[in-house]
TrEMBL record:
Family: Belongs to the Wnt family.
Annotated keywords: Developmental protein, Disulfide bond, Extracellular matrix, Secreted, Wnt signaling pathway
Protein name according to UniProt: Protein Wnt
Primary site of residence: secreted
Localization, UniProt: Secreted, Extracellular space, Extracellular matrix
InterPro entries: Wnt, Wnt_C
Role this protein plays: Ligand for members of the frizzled family of seven transmembrane receptors.
Pfam family, one: wnt
Lineage top rank: taxon: Eukaryota
Length: 82
């Protein structure tokens, strides 16, 4: 005899099952994969915000044991599930 138990909804936060839900998670707006907003946001939609990001760039390896980088500024779009 087989017994089927339905899975809980991973889109919604359910502490009992250890699911944090997908609200507020970062996603990729133009991807059709698992990281894409269409699938990850469970049809709720998403928001996009732009921000300035400082990151290491133009890094150089100096022989034996040193890496020197410059700091570059760029504007990134961050997409999050509603």
């Amino acid at each position: 005899m087989c017994v089927f138990v339905s899975s809980h909804n991973f889109c919604k936060r359910r502490k009992r099952y250890g699911s944090l839900g997908t609200q507020g998670r970062q996603c990729v707006s133009d991807s059709m994969g698992l990281e894409g907003c269409t699938l990850m946001c469970c049809g709720r939609g998403y928001t996009q915000t732009q921000g300035t990001v400082l990151e290491n760039c133009k890094c150089q390896f100096i022989w034996c044991c040193q890496v020197i980088c410059k700091t570059c500024t760029s504007i990134k779009t961050i997409t999050r599930c509603l």
